[in-house]
Amino acid sequence: VTENRSDLEDLHLYATPREQRFRRFASLEYEGQLYMTPYDFIQAVTSDEPKHAKKWRSLSKQELNQILMETPPVWKGSSKLFRNLNEKGVISYTEYLFLLCILTKPHAGFRIAFNMFDTDGNEMVDKKEFLVLQEIFRKKNEKREKRGNEEKRAMLRLQLYGYHTSTNSVLKTEGEDLVPRSYWDTLRRSTSQALFSDLAERADDISSSLSDTTLLVHFFGKKGKAELNFEDFYRFMDNLQTEVLEIEFLSYSNGMNTISEEDFAHILLRYTNVENTSSYLENMRCSIPEEKGITFEEFRSFFQFLNNLEDFTIAMQMYNFASRSIGQDEFKRAVYVATGVKLSAHLVNTVFKIFDVDRDDQLSYKEFIGIMKDRLNRGFRGYKPIQRYTTFKSCVRKELYSR
Questions:
Q1: Domain range list for the chain
Q2: Is 187 strand, coil or helix?
Q3: Residue of higher predicted confidence among 334 and 319
Q4: What are phi and psi of 283, to 5 degrees?
Q5: What are the angstrom distances between the C-alpha of 177 and each of 25, 137, 332?
Q6: Which residue spans adopt a coiled-coil conformation according to this UniProt entry (predicted)?
Q7: What phi and psi, each to the nearest 5 degrees, are found at residue 155?
Q8: What DSSP designation does 326 have?
Q9: How far out from the chain centre does Cα 45 lie?
């Protein structure tokens, strides 16, 4: 694959943005299929670009088996799992999409996800049921894929899925009106037993041709015979959210217990479509001249709230329909009522200082919800680099720490 990389570069032209990002960060190839390592995945969701130019390294059967042999069981999972595995793991494209979904969904949604996999209702998920995910995401991807040279598209599918696919198989919908807006919606809405029966048959067909991955071994054991219960599934998803947030927080804290309010603003705006980010940063600098800092608990609670943004949006829309903006007390109350998350007064004040562009100490639907909906797309699209200004106080603090 390394030798033929130049011949495959033009496949990028036929890939969707999600496929392009996966191909850009993936570093492994096995029998023609591309894989990420756990380190690659962390890079893909926390960095603008790979730290080093990626070359797809071909794995031998022996190397893959050794990696899978060293994969810990699900009961040994932790919020450092991906960092501990580092380069010793393989993650497929469909698993990449699944992991991205986890990062942007509320804890309450974890039960929905589990129930979607648990097609026989025995409150346990086996490997075959989990492989249904492979087909759901594949079919959803085919609805989104770029049109063009069908031969190139077939080569790209082989790279991403490890086998050729037919655009007419499974998911027999009668029109585009039935196509949900996201992968998570596809999973959530695909509840009919008839649909799952079709998907399960297809999963049987392809499972024999697919290689095991780190995630499959982690969930279902080295022989693939174990079953996954909800508690372990929930713990894995919660740990992954926590791990990515820890990595983002630590990348700005430089070993301190807090990050600056300005750094917090950088992290929030980093994933959005905001054109003039400098105005938001300048607005915050003027409004919060004295740096107090954001703790990790505050940081984590805010992103837990963002993962419940759909429920909070309903409350915000009520204010919007009444042509009312929302103050800080109302904001805190609406967050708690809609999501069950308690935000500190300082964190709420910081959010207002960032997004309250007209400085009336009120937050409108347009000022906050519209921007934060972009933030939820995370690794599903590329990052927009933000020029990073540093306050004098931040410089002093980081200089002292470096000594």
A1: 5-166+179-229, 256-376
A2: helix
A3: 334
A4: -60, -40
A5: 33, 18, 37
A6: none
A7: -65, -40
A8: B
A9: 7
Find where tokens 């933000």 sit: 386
149 to 112, 123, 159, 163: CA distances (angstroms): 38, 44, 16, 18
Q: Are 181 and 377 in contact (CB under 8 A)?
A: no
Whether this model's pTM surpasses 0.85: no
Angle at 401 between CA 398 and CA 403, to 5 degrees: 115
Place of tokens 């919007």: 320
Compare 22 and 110 and report the one with higher pLDDT: 22
Write the Ramachandran bin of 355: left for phi over 0, alpha for psi from -120 to 50, otherwise beta: alpha
Whose tokens are 């509320």? That residue is 106
Angle, helix 230-253 to helix 261-269, in steps of 10 degrees = 120
Separation CA 36–CA 263 (nearest Å): 29
Among 368, 384, 370, which Cα is nearest to 278's?
A: 384
Neighbouring C-alpha atoms within 13 Å toward the C-beta of 6:
1
Strand, coil or helix: what is 390? coil
Tokens representing 204 are 């049987």
- In this structure, of 47-56, 57-66, 394-403, the range with the lowest mean pLDDT score is 394-403
Q: What is the pLDDT of residue 374?
A: 61
Whose tokens are 């609805």? That residue is: 143
Q: What CA–CA distance (Å, rounded) separates 140 from 144?
A: 7
The answer to whether the CB of 382 falls within 8 A of the CB of 21 is yes
Give pLDDT tens digits for 161-207.
886 544 344 333 333 333 345 555 555 554 444 345 555 555 555 56
pLDDT band at 8 (very low <50, low <70, confident <90, very high): low
DSSP conformational letter for 36: B
Q: Three-state SS for 61? A: helix
